Amino acid sequence: MMGRAQLIVGGVLSAGFVLAAALSLVWVPHDVAALNIAERLRPPGGAYLLGTDQFGRDLVSMLMVGARSSIAVALVAVGIGMGVGVPLGLLAAAHRGGLLDEIVMRANDLIFAFPALVIAILITAVFGPSALNAILAIGIFNIPVFARVTRGGALSLWTLDYILAARVAGKGAARISVEHILPNIANLLIVQGTIQFSLGILAEAGLSYLGLGAQPPTPSWGRMLAEAQTMIYTAPRLAILPGLAIVLMVLGLNLMGDGLRDALDPRLRRVAR
């Protein structure tokens, strides 16, 4: 029951932000690129449900478009990590103990030596700050995560009888990996993807806070926090609202990940019964 409740609460929180981000593609209450100094620091109410910032921009609109930026960056970055890391993990597991396995895992160790922030700084130094470079930095950091999870899950299956039967039947390592290994570790990858998605939201916010993510006039939660620093005593809601959005989004994804783990892992289902 606890796992199901976590899944429902996490799903509702996450879906709310996803719907807000999707809605911002076609409609927002006010133009986020328009500066209206005459309306700066308006309190919540009236035409501005949550008030305005120091530039007269509507906070509801800023949060909606900021959700779109954060979700898009995190989603594409997780896609990069999964799209590259999963095949590498399957390859390493298929050649366990061999040269290819050693090369893949040592390359993963090398990437792990550089946090996403350091990778982002390196990429930014070469190509300049942008949302695309933030995606590359977070995506590169996700590759070894998915490679390790995939390899660990696959290794536990390669010694099972049905895999040995497939090998006897003449199936190659690549075919076995795709037809038999990957479907049986999909639950691990789904849960890990949810976790990395939440970490991607945090990473995007951190990079934007440092000016390495999406650039003006595109709003992002991290840059909203950075811009609110000078107004923390005058209008604390400018920092509280984007910070609360980040917390709730990450909380929702983590709860959903825990709920999915409980729902997809048969061992945990037996314990719950």
Query: Mean pLDDT, nearest integer?
Result: 89
Going by helix content, strand content and strand pairing, the class is: mainly alpha
Number of domain modules: 1
Into which percent range does the helicity of residues fall? over 70%
Radius of gyration: 22 Å
Count of strand segments? 0
Along the chain, the helix and strand elements come as: HHHHHHHHHHH
* Net shape: elongated
**How widely separated are the two ends?**
9 Å
Q: Total helix count?
A: 11
Walk me through the structure.
This protein is mostly helical and 273 residues long. The chain has one domain: MetI-like (MetI-like fold). The chain has 11 helices and no strands. The chain has helices at 2-23, 59-94, 99-112, 116-127, 131-155, 161-168, 173-184, 186-209, 221-227, 237-264, 266-272. Helix 1 packs across helix 10 and helix 2 crosses helix 8 (186-209).
Primary descriptors:
single chain; MetI-like fold; 273 residues
In short:
With 273 residues, the protein is mainly α.
Could you give the topology of this structure?
Layout: H1 2-23, H2 59-94, H3 99-112, H4 116-127, H5 131-155, H6 161-168, H7 173-184, H8 186-209, H9 221-227, H10 237-264, H11 266-272
Helix pairs in contact: 1-2, 1-10, 2-3, 2-5, 2-8, 3-5, 4-5, 5-8, 8-9, 8-10, 9-10
